[in-house]
Amino acid sequence: MLRPDQEVPRPAEQLWGRRRVLLLNATYEPLTAVSIRRAVVLILRERADIVHEDDAGLAVHSVATSVPIPSVIRLRTYVRVPYRAITPMTRTALMHRDRFQCAYCGDRATTIDHVIPRSRGGAHGWDNCVACCSGCNHRKADRLLSELGWSLASAPREPKGRHWRLLATVTDIDPAWVRYIDAGAA
Is residue 50 part of a domain? Predict the structure, then answer.
């Protein structure tokens, strides 16, 4: 609730802290997601160029310049990224891997399930966890798939590709990012 002396926040002010901007390397490979503030600083310091602007046409203004709020920026110089063999498993990345669909019935997934329950020695890793709807998760409980007569369409596995590190940290993906991030690749 706003106090009488407060102004209603404008959309640009609401976006400033929450929205993320996709940062691409000079070769157009995704590196990470940065805040709008960090993206504007990189543009003003001439370290990055705007690839896609915000669809709403919002901009950051100063006395001498105006910078459109970007949704995707690209570094001007190539940055070497050290190779990391392990993709961190997070809830967001797991949901993206399974395309937000229940591994058992195909409905919208809301939870994570361990194929081999942890109470029976199952590990918490890419090859034992799947996205699951709450109904199937409740029905399965701590039983094995063979006990229920259920099966998986495909075996869970660790996703491949650098973009999965990005998907592990970002919950909302801007539609302008899709051409740079192949979220369907595994």
Answer: yes
Model confidence band, residue 58 (pLDDT cutoffs 50, 70, 90) = confident
**41: domain range?**
13-82+162-177
Please report the pLDDT score of residue 185 as a whole number: 46
Number of domains in the chain: 2
Q: How far apart are CA 132 and CA 75, in angstroms?
A: 38
What does DSSP say about strands 30-35 and 48-53: parallel, antiparallel, or unpaired?
unpaired
Describe the crossing of helices 36-44 and 11-18 by its angle, rounded to 10 degrees.
90
pLDDT tens, residue by residue, 93-136: 898 889 899 999 999 999 999 999 999 999 999 999 999 999 99
Burial class (CB in 10 A: 0-12, 13-18, 19+), 73: buried
Contacts of 51 (CB under 8 A, 6+ apart): 24, 70, 72, 73, 74
My answer on whether 137 and 167 are in the same domain is no
Kind plus residue range of the DSSP H or E element containing 131: strand 129-132
pTM summary value: 0.58
Q: Are residues 72 and 107 in the same domain?
A: no
120, amino acid identity: R
